[in-house]
Amino acid sequence: MDIEQTKIPQATAKRLPLYYRFLNNLHSQGKLRVSSKELSEAVKVDSATIRRDFSYFGALGKKGYGYNVEYLLSFFRKTLDQDETTKVALVGVGNLGTAFLNYNFTKNNNTRIEIAFDADQKRVGTEVGGVQVEHVDDLEEKINDTAVAILTVPSSEAQPMTDRLVKAGVSAILNFTPARITVPPHVRVHHIDLSIELQALVYFLKHYPLEEEQEG
Amino acid sequence: MDIEQTKIPQATAKRLPLYYRFLNNLHSQGKLRVSSKELSEAVKVDSATIRRDFSYFGALGKKGYGYNVEYLLSFFRKTLDQDETTKVALVGVGNLGTAFLNYNFTKNNNTRIEIAFDADQKRVGTEVGGVQVEHVDDLEEKINDTAVAILTVPSSEAQPMTDRLVKAGVSAILNFTPARITVPPHVRVHHIDLSIELQALVYFLKHYPLEEEQEG
DNA sequence: AGCAGTTTGTGAAAACATTAACGACTTCCT
DNA sequence: AGGAAGTCGTTAATGTTTTCACAAACTGCT
Ligand SMILES: NC(=O)c1ccc[n+]([C@@H]2O[C@H](COP(=O)([O-])OP(=O)(O)OC[C@H]3O[C@@H](n4cnc5c(N)ncnc54)[C@H](O)[C@@H]3O)[C@@H](O)[C@H]2O)c1
Ligand SMILES: NC(=O)c1ccc[n+]([C@@H]2O[C@H](COP(=O)([O-])OP(=O)(O)OC[C@H]3O[C@@H](n4cnc5c(N)ncnc54)[C@H](O)[C@@H]3O)[C@@H](O)[C@H]2O)c1
């Protein structure tokens, strides 16, 4: 069953949750069908790219008609495992960690932060966004079978905490610290480096001029 | 002067701030030279890619020696315009906005959030992370020549606020809302979609198995 | 029933990005 | 001084992603 899945390009895989979200929007608006052109305008992805992306999963649409919203939605729900919730742990309940706990990725989402850790006694024992904050000393004991961790500790703690998370059995880490962490080959890491995103935006702004503003 | 710059691949441009940060680290550790291999281990980018990236700017290194840290650093400082600060405005001082204001991208960075806006009277007039929070009604009046905006409002407000920002003269937006905003062609938008990042990580975890864990 | 208009799915091309491989040159050890 | 080891910059090969463009197939109207 996974044999074909492995062949989906990574770029496509990253767009799937985006498609899923907008299909949900369309569905709750009562829309019954949608064309790649319409979807393209909504998600800002070229319509040919959308058709190509969908085609990796077979022929999901109908020529001259487009895609049936309900069918597409239920297909992606299965594909994205939207029916089972993935447990997530958050380490470092500071500025960023608190924001994530309050948000908790609840809308259209199959992930849930179930437990949080911090080193600061003042935070331990409190509840943030409905999630209990535990002491980081108890990490190994309390993390159980959680597979995914969000890392929002100070960057000096990033590698030590990563090592502990890996030892405790975590297999994927979403790293928000500026540190580039080292993990064994079986652990997947995605970096979200907000400073770099901002700096890159400024760089593009200055060095990659866009179309001139049009008069009229 | 910008003629050659335009040809740098976007993928390279996105890595420049990362290189810059690690060169700074090396410099403050007192390191005088660095090879592409060493840098590769630190930033987790293939060493051939690093050499290729650097080569777009000419011959910055020396065969058999590597790169002079100080020289490279001063070169990138110029290239990334680290000497002039870009003013940034933040719209929406909620969970995420507050975290950003407290952090304010101050370390090794040429950007600074100088002004923030919110619609909530309770927040207006307060100071968060040293930045004054203004009422969003005064946006047009107070934003002046700020070129970059960070958008952290509720998603229903994303498009209306974008339209106002664009009208007020902003030319780049870093959008954290799940909405895909529409802008005129001369405005640059980068989306950072945290829900999608988390969902994509989970998808990769389940469908793109990595190397098996090794015994011993 | 027939036809004009629409939209998919995909082969082929183009664009973009990474990685391998190696000649040329430098360093530094003995 | 000579040679082994190290490292860059680049050419070529490879891999990935996007985009074009169109036949085939469907819709919906008359
Ligand atoms: N806040 C932002 O906007 C922002 C932007 C970009 C990057 N970051 C990065 O995200 C990370 C977190 O940023 P922040 O602003 O939330 O920092 P913060 O200082 O507000 O929060 C860090 C939290 O981690 C806790 N902590 C420290 N050591 C720990 C440990 N060993 N185990 C568990 N918890 C520990 C601290 O008690 C604190 O609550 C930092 O690495 C920062 O560089 C933050
Ligand atoms: N917090 C997270 O972890 C997180 C994660 C992913 C995405 N997001 C997205 O980021 C955005 C902000 O999230 P949040 O958790 O900070 O929400 P929030 O509700 O805490 O903050 C939104 C802030 O915007 C202000 N606001 C509302 N309308 C406004 C307007 N017209 N002009 C100016 N300010 C206005 C509100 O007063 C509030 O302070 C949302 O779109 C959310 O979907 C947040």
Account of the 3D structure:
2 copies of one chain form a homodimer. Chain A has 216 residues and is of the alpha/beta class. The first copy, chain A, has 2 domains: 5-79, Winged helix-like DNA-binding domain superfamily/Winged helix DNA-binding domain (Arc Repressor Mutant, subunit A), CATH 1.10.10; 86-196, Rossmann fold, CATH 3.40.50. Helix content of chain A is 42%, strand content 17%. Chain A has helices at residues 2-5, 10-28, 36-43, 47-55, 69-79, 95-103, 139-142, 155-167, 194-207; strands spanning 33-34, 67-68, 86-91, 111-118, 127-128, 131-135, 148-151, 172-175, 188-191. In chain A, the strands form 2 sheets. A 7-stranded mixed beta sheet of chain A has the order 5-6-4-3-7-8-9. In chain A, strands 1-2 form a two-stranded antiparallel sheet. In chain A, a hairpin with a 2-residue loop joins strand 5 (127-128) and strand 6. In chain A, helix 2 crosses helix 5 (69-79). The first copy, chain A, is globular. The termini of chain A are far apart. The mean pLDDT of chain A is 93. One nicotinamide-adenine-dinucleotide sits between chains A (91-97, 117-120, 123, 136, 152-155, 157, 161, 176-178, 194-195) and B (99-100, 103). The structure holds a DNA duplex (30 and 30 nucleotides).
Question: What is the secondary structure topology, with strand pairs?
Answer:
The structure is a homodimer of 216-residue chains.
Chain A: H1 2-5, H2 10-28, E1 33-34, H3 36-43, H4 47-55, E2 67-68, H5 69-79, E3 86-91, H6 95-103, E4 111-118, E5 127-128, E6 131-135, H7 139-142, E7 148-151, H8 155-167, E8 172-175, E9 188-191, H9 194-207
Parallel strand pairs in A: 3-4, 3-7, 4-6, 7-8, 8-9
Antiparallel strand pairs in A: 1-2, 5-6
Bound molecules: nicotinamide-adenine-dinucleotide (2 copies).
The first copy, chain A, binds a DNA duplex (30 and 30 nucleotides) through residues 9-12, 35-37, 46-49, 51-52, 54-55, 59-67.
